[in-house]
Specification:
Blueprint (H helix, E strand, L loop, with lengths): L1 E10 H11 L1 H7 L2 H7 L5 H19 L12 E5 L5 E5 L1 H9 L2 E11 L2 E10 L4
Antiparallel strand pairs: 1-5, 2-3, 4-5
Length: about 130
């Protein structure tokens, strides 16, 4: 059963400006430790940062809580597997929040055209009864 959906639209130029203005400080603000490790090896730095920011926004909307505890920029890692599929890793507090609400799966997908990036997230829950 669908628990919630979230959609975010982001202009890549916004992330590019923030990246150049704040550099590593912006990267540390946005990325988890696991994401930072993956970020070091990617070629398209701005795109990587944008998908993480927009993806976390979409996830927060699918959960219906926005970017506030327990859903923060550092409470979920979006890591691409060997095929490029984004996989989510939740920190314990957010995982407990999801478990308490019977959210059994959260999925995110990205698409971009020119300077626009869209992120779509779906949260599903176990039906009670």
């Amino acid at each position: 059963m669908i628990y919630g959906i979230g959609l975010d639209l982001l202009n890549l130029e916004r992330i590019e400006r923030l990246r150049h203005k704040y550099g590593e400080r912006f990267e540390r603000h946005l990325l988890t430790f696991d994401e930072m490790n993956q970020y070091q090896s990617v070629e398209r730095k701005t795109h990587y940062l944008a998908t993480r920011f927009s993806g976390k926004e979409a996830i927060s909307k699918a959960l219906g809580i926005g970017l506030r505890a327990p859903m923060t920029l550092h409470s979920v890692s979006i890591i691409n597997n060997e095929l490029g599929k984004p996989e989510l890793i939740f920190e314990p507090k957010l995982k407990q929040y999801l478990d308490d609400r019977r959210v059994c799966g959260v999925f995110v997908s990205f698409s971009h055209e020119g300077s626009l990036l869209s992120s779509y997230a779906i949260a599903e829950s176990v039906q009670v009864g």
